[in-house]
Amino acid sequence: MQDPNCQSPDDIAQMMADIGARAKSAAATLGTARADDRRRALEEAARLIMLRADDILAANAQDMAFGRAKDLSVAMLDRLALSKDRLAAIADGLCAVAAQDDPVGSVIATWDRPNGLHITRVRTPLGVIGVIYESRPNVTADAGALCLKSGNAVILRGGSESLHSSAALVACLRAGLAAAGLPEDAVQLVPTRDRAAVRALLTMTEYVDVIVPRGGKGLVGLVQTEARVPVFAHLEGVCHIYLDAAADPEKALRVTLNAKTRRTGICGAAECLLIHRDIVETIGRDVIAALIGAGVEVRGDTTLQALPGVVAAKEEDWGREFLDSIIAARVVDDIDAAIAHIRQFGSHHTESILTEDAGAAAQFFAQLDSAILMHNASTQFADGGEFGMGAEIGIATGKLHARGPVGAEQLTSFKYLVTGNGTIRP
Amino acid sequence: MQDPNCQSPDDIAQMMADIGARAKSAAATLGTARADDRRRALEEAARLIMLRADDILAANAQDMAFGRAKDLSVAMLDRLALSKDRLAAIADGLCAVAAQDDPVGSVIATWDRPNGLHITRVRTPLGVIGVIYESRPNVTADAGALCLKSGNAVILRGGSESLHSSAALVACLRAGLAAAGLPEDAVQLVPTRDRAAVRALLTMTEYVDVIVPRGGKGLVGLVQTEARVPVFAHLEGVCHIYLDAAADPEKALRVTLNAKTRRTGICGAAECLLIHRDIVETIGRDVIAALIGAGVEVRGDTTLQALPGVVAAKEEDWGREFLDSIIAARVVDDIDAAIAHIRQFGSHHTESILTEDAGAAAQFFAQLDSAILMHNASTQFADGGEFGMGAEIGIATGKLHARGPVGAEQLTSFKYLVTGNGTIRP
């Protein structure tokens, strides 16, 4: 292949159209292939990842050198880095997805009609999925695996820093496909760092059925604004914890600490704590002290600023995704006020109520419309693996088609199969 | 209200934004209202339609006069016309939708996880649906009913010819909402004939969640091109009938005649007949003779032109939606060729195979990806009522979210309700 970085924008557009056409053609074959062949392709890819570990790690070393030269942060470099252990985890992930029930052709519903028809609704692949992500090479394998499992072709556009690592992983996926007699072009990696390729991908409605962006708000916002292809995404996760008047003190403490501190940089981390007025001096005081004790900066409203160590929240702290050891905290008069706050400032991602009052939990579940609502559980569970999907290609906060953690099943559409016996409509 | 036809484009945009904001606010209330209240609102609206029949018919007379002055075709005027019988059918339709199971809050799936979480996936309304249609006033009632049933607010933009009729029907729906203690703004009619209102509706992503266009190819194509809001639609229904080598002669005759001639102007009407080479001189000859006998113009390929009465098909007749007493007809060498033809020329709407060979039917079902695939049944069954959905707001050929006949259920999204017991993520 010639160096794709030397291409003109027209050349890039042509290259992307070629990739799209090949993906569409591969999707038609993959979508009607046997489930067993798709499973074998994934298992073979997992085997090859371990077999080729040294080569993949050498490719990753090139990326790491490039990343250091670009002065990437330590956190970014850590996301980029591969190791034998990480490769083993990636291979295990492929096998876990391979072992799941095959969604393609599975029956969603079946019924008989008085007109004599027997109707069955079965899952079908969507077609071609475009995945745009930042530097984590493991997304290459996760996204590739979920798309193959669901019978979709995938076009991967990883961060420029991870190009060599992703290419090495994609080679394993393609070899797995070939070994199972399936078209290699079902998995393709955009072979250029040029951003014109992203712009082309976002507008190729002829070839691409859905775009999944994975990364920071900048990337996702760009994709949501510029895409003409439908997008499954969440712009941000402004997750709320509401401590109800009837919260259990011990559960409130444990869940809030976990929701904020387990990992602060993920979309399921809690960003705002709402406390019922009646328990501010009891449970509220203890939870806030524990957060501060764990190194969290608590930005409180006027009432909470009376508690030791609480700093003043600014107006812009409500609805803010900190992705850091910071939490906004506010007192609310009742559950209605908590719900109103979340409706105003939430991002429709994940919220949790802590209460022993079943009625309050039911109201929280009914009157809020986030993708995930939790009762006495940590918002950090917002994850496809934790939900039992094997893996996730992303989390969606839109309301069309996919919502919450997006696994293989949500990468499918459906069709109706209708059987009669010479049946005509009167 | 001042005459909305005298407004400037800016005024129209402002008016549409107001309508959108009111719809969004009403949707929040409607979506969490009790199922029983939504049911009562529809039943009350049905009662009012019969009670106010004289007023509605008077409004319709105004529209008919306007339509005649505009020199509408007889077919268009027939679609526009209301009568006591048609009003009774509309009221019955509302009651049928009211009587259906309520989709909102219904459980799609529920499972337990080893991490201690109990997860339930329940249906939620989408939010605000925009419906853009031509002159049939009954769409006003059908679309309004399905949106209310599914907890969605609706903004209706009917054809300019049906403005008075639609307004009279919308008044009944709004009065029904008020009687049930629900916000009237859950059903709103755009009160102007100005096309700027349509352009505003198509781009109000802040207020509108989905657009459903109902009408001819011109309207749907315009909506698909200009909308920034997601669209549930089919551009056209190029439905195919394939007579397999193992077709039953009697079923082939009956189904093909029904699929083409029952109603030629609907999207489920057959537009192309594919005949296996082995049965051209037997079943094919009889079916074509019967079609011609029923007044259908058969445009055949070179082989079929040898049969009496068949005229020559032109290249542009493949994949063409005639919506008339015309059918294109072609001989294929085998089922693979039939499938290839449909993949090339079909519109992903509805196709039917006539065969007694279960393997051929299975191949047809597996290798085609139209919204509806049929075996030994007429394509004219492509209809939400026939599928058991009570009514339909339209038929979708896209692959995201809604597909095939769109009833109340497909006007919903979902959310996850997750219950723990102080559960935290390790």
How do the strands and helices of this protein lay out in sequence?
Two copies of one chain form a homodimer.
Chain A: H1 9-31, H2 35-51, H3 53-69, H4 74-80, H5 84-99, E1 107-112, E2 118-125, E3 128-133, H6 138-149, E4 153-157, H7 163-179, E5 187-189, H8 196-203, E6 210-214, H9 217-226, E7 239-243, H10 249-261, E8 270-276, H11 280-293, E9 297-300, E10 311-312, E11 326-332, H12 335-345, E12 350-354, H13 358-367, E13 372-377, H14 384-387, E14 394-396, E15 404-406, E16 412-423
Parallel strand pairs in A: 3-4, 3-6, 4-5, 7-8, 7-12, 8-11, 9-10, 9-11, 12-13
Antiparallel strand pairs in A: 1-2, 2-16, 14-15
Précis, in short:
The structure is a homodimer of 426-residue chains. Chain A is α/β, with parallel strands linked by helices. The first copy, chain A, folds into two domains: 4-232 and 402-418, Aldehyde Dehydrogenase, Chain A, domain 1 (3-Layer(aba) Sandwich); 239-383, Aldehyde Dehydrogenase, Chain A, domain 2.
List keywords for this structure.
Aldehyde Dehydrogenase, Chain A, domain 2; 7-stranded parallel sheet; Aldehyde Dehydrogenase, Chain A, domain 1; 426 residues; homodimer; 42% helix; 2 domains
